[in-house]
Every structure is written in C-alpha cells, then in structure tokens.
Design a protein that fits this description.
alpha/beta, 22 strands, 25% strand, 465 residues, 32% helix, 7-stranded mixed β-sheet, 14 helices
C-alpha cells in the first residue's frame, strides 16, 4: 500500500475523530487523520470543553477566597487579588498538555497526521494541501462551529463568541450573554465570579432548553441568587460597537417595543452549526439535510459506500462524549466488529456551580411518549455530605415507568452532578429499575446517596426527608 493509500482516513481530530483514528489503528487498520489546526483535539480541547473548565475551576477558587466563603471553614484570607494572566496561563498549560498527549497517542498507535484541510475529489479520494490521498473508508468528524446571530457581528474584542470569551484580557464591567444555554451560562459564570455584572438575554421563556422543566426553574432561581440577571422571552435585533462598549437593541420575543442595553462586552452564544464548508461533499455524492447535517444510519453510514460520519456534523446532541463513543463504534464497524452507541442514554452536564446534569427523558418527554410515570425527588439539603460541605442547593429527580419501574430519566442539580450522573447512565444502560438503584448500597457520606434516596422516593420511601 502506497504512503498515500490507507484503510481509513478520518477527517477531523476532535473528540470523535481522534478517538476513531486511534481505535481503528488499534484494530489493525492503516489509518490517517486530517487536521488543519496546529494542535490536535478539535474545538473541545483547544477552545471548548477543556479551557473553559480550567477557567471555571480557577474562578471558583477565586470567588471562595475573595468573598469570604473560606472564612466559614476557619481559613481567613486578606488582600486577595486576581492575576488574570496567571489564570490564562494555567488554562493554556492544560490545553498544551492534553493536545500534546493526543499527538503522542497518534505516534504510539501509528496514526498518520495529515496536516491541512481535506477536500473530497471522489468518494474514495481527497486532497489535503495539494496532495492526493486514497482510502477504502472515510469518517467525517469535522465537528461544529459557533452559530452567528443576524445583526450582531463578532469582532472578538467587544462582541465575542465562546473562543473570545476564553481570551479576555480584563474583567468586563458588564457582560451581556446572548443565549441562556450551557456555554453561555458556563462562561457567564466565569466572568461573574471574577467581578463582572452578567446579564443573560434568552429568546425562550426559560434557560437551558432541552432540560427537565423543574431543573430549568431551579437553576434560574439559583443563578439569580448568585447575581445573574435574566432577560427571558427577549430577542436581540442589533448590536452596535460604540467606542469601548456595545449598545444592544432588544425587544420582546413575541413582538413589542424595543429598548437598549449598554454593555462593555457582548458574548454571542446561541448554539453551534455543523462544519461542512470546504469539504466538497458533492464530489463524494453526499447531500446535507435541511439543518446542514450529514444523515447517517445506525452504523454511521452516510449512504455513500465507504463514507461514515460521527459527532457534531450528524444529527443529535453536540456533545464531546457522544462523539467519542461514536468514534469508537464507527472504527469497530469499519473493522468488521459490532459498534454500538445507545443514543437514548447520553448524559448532558452544565459545569456551573452547582453543576446540572441529566440523562434520558425529561418528565415532559416521558409523558409525551405515552408513559405513565412515577417521580422521586430528593433535596441536596437532606444529603449529609452536601449539607456538611455547605452545598445545599439542588435536588435529584428520578423518573420511572409506573408499570415496569424501569428508569426513564434522571435529572439533578448538585455540586458534583457531572460525576453523579455517570451512575444513573450506567444503571439505565443495564435497564435498571428505580428499585435497583434504591437497594444498591451507596458509600456514606457521599453526594451520590441523594440518587439512592431519590430512587427510594419513587415508591414514597426516602429516609432522610
């Protein structure tokens, strides 16, 4: 096989792409991965999941020290100062270490990194930086990018997107976040903790679309208590840069009188869209759906023989862990094995404080699908570990089928909800009932006992409430 011929070429080295490439190589396929960035890891590792979590953690530490929270534990601080450059340095160090780690894994597993943009020239060949490559199979894993908002032009100075929000060199006096979804709330949390006034403008009547309604309402109350200002059922029609600030024009979502909001920085965070521009998909015979996505079947086949797609470029939630699982599965399918992803059990997490997490159906979705349900809830205030740690906000909610007791969904707000949700996801993967969770011994004292008690509450038998 020539140096430019491969069993598999993966286009994109984000969570779906680099994982697919590594797994394919482990299974004995001659594999290459195309990536135009200077570092591997895609949006997630470079300008998404990882750097935002670094700033979230650092800003939590600053807020605890600066606002006297530590004094309640007998740790007195004074003269606390923000060194924003040092905070950014820590973020960059985390990114460098992890992206470099993927490059090491490519070398270890003999995955060839083709540097540049891929463009299909036929269904079995692509061009990358002027060189032609052929493969028996392709996986498109090009991810997604920020969705633009008409009337609002991002300049990455005063009007920024999520990438720009990671790079601000000063804390804005007033940050307006357009969009009350996961990314906007996480990045808004970072800058609020560091001293900014944060206003969230959301078109819908509640934040966090797609999550359980009780979780959305409770999160709204908690964030307001933290200092967030919410302008719900409101749409932004224009943003004008004026010197060192921005004037936003807003009006009611259903129509009405316009008004203006003055801001130092505006963060546009209304969602993401698939990256397909420049791939010349038509040369391979691939068509996009109405939302610009690549439709795939259960085995991630696109309809063109030998071409597969995974991650944000396909329908479904745009989540790094979904893409990773699909990357492993598609590599196994191509290698002749059985690759499976249960798309009914994909957890989602909001890394605010407290964290918000869910998996499976919301209560509204369960009812809409015709399920007769029973719901169990348990407040974190009744959990000994959360109460001792002074983390009383939130609750755990278990939704079960009333006839079979099978768990349909779990939703929670807790300081470590992102970790706790894994147990719920695994239980649902094995078809657990609420009784299975309720009668599983949980270590004490842990936050996870709240999940056990919520499961007990499904049949009206919680102990500590």
């Amino acid at each position: 096989m020539a140096d430019t011929d491969f069993d598999l070429i993966v286009i994109g080295a984000g969570p779906g792409g680099y994982v697919a490439a590594i797994r394919a190589a482990q299974l004995g396929l001659k594999t290459a991965c195309v990536e135009s960035r200077e570092t591997l890891g895609g949006t997630c590792l470079n300008v998404g999941c990882i750097p935002s979590k670094a700033l979230l953690h650092a800003s939590e530490l600053f807020e605890e020290a600066n606002h006297g929270t530590l004094a309640k534990w007998g740790v007195k601080t004074s003269g606390v100062e923000l060194d924003l450059e040092a905070m950014h340095s820590g973020r960059r160090e985390a990114v460098k270490g992890l992206t470099g780690g993927i490059e090491f894994l490519f070398k270890k597993n003999k995955v060839s990194w083709l540097k540049g943009h891929a463009r299909f020239t036929a269904k079995d060949s692509i061009d990358v930086a002027g060189t032609a490559y052929r493969a028996k199979n392709f996986v498109i894993a090009t991810g997604s990018s920020v969705t633009p908002l008409p009337g609002v032009e991002v300049d990455q100075e005063r009007i920024i997107d999520s990438t720009g929000a990671l790079e601000l060199d000063a804390v804005p006096g007033h940050l307006v976040v357009i969009g009350g979804g996961v990314i906007g709330l996480e990045l808004g949390s970072v800058w609020r903790r560091l001293g900014a006034k944060v206003t969230v403008v959301e078109f819908l009547d509640q934040i966090l679309p797609g999550m359980d309604s009780e979780v959305r309402k409770e999160a709204n109350k908690i964030f307001k208590k933290q200092g967030f200002e919410f302008r719900l059922s409101t749409k932004v029609t224009k943003a004008e840069r004026k010197g060192d600030g921005v004037t936003l024009t807003v009006e009611p979502a259903k129509g009405g009188a316009a008004e203006t909001i003055e801001a130092d920085v505006v963060l546009v965070s209304i969602g993401r869209r698939p990256n397909t521009d420049g791939l010349a998909l038509e040369a391979a015979g691939i068509k996009l759906n109405a939302r610009g996505q690549i439709e795939v079947d259960h085995d991630f086949r696109t309809g063109v023989e030998g071409i597969y797609a995974v991650g944000d470029v396909t329908p479904g939630p745009m989540l790094a862990h979904k893409a990773e699982d699909e990357g492993i599965a598609v590599a196994e399918v191509i290698a002749g094995q059985i690759g499976i992803v249960n798309h009914e059990v994909i957890p989602s997490v909001v890394y605010t404080m407290p964290e918000i997490a869910g998996v499976g159906l919301t209560e509204e979705e369960a009812k809409a699908r015709g399920h007769e349900i029973r719901v169990g809830k348990f407040p974190m205030l009744g959990n000994s570990r959360a109460k001792t740690n002074r983390e009383p906000d939130g609750f755990v909610k278990v939704i079960a089928d009333a006839k079979t007791d099978r768990v349909l969904g779990v939703w929670m707000i807790a300081s470590v909800a992102g970790t706790m949700i894994a147990q719920a996801a695994q239980a649902m993967e094995f078809g657990a009932t609420s009784e299975d969770i309720a009668y599983t011994c949980h270590a004490h004292p842990t936050h996870s006992e709240a999940l056990k008690e919520a499961a007990m509450a499904v049949t009206g038998k919680p102990i500590h409430v």
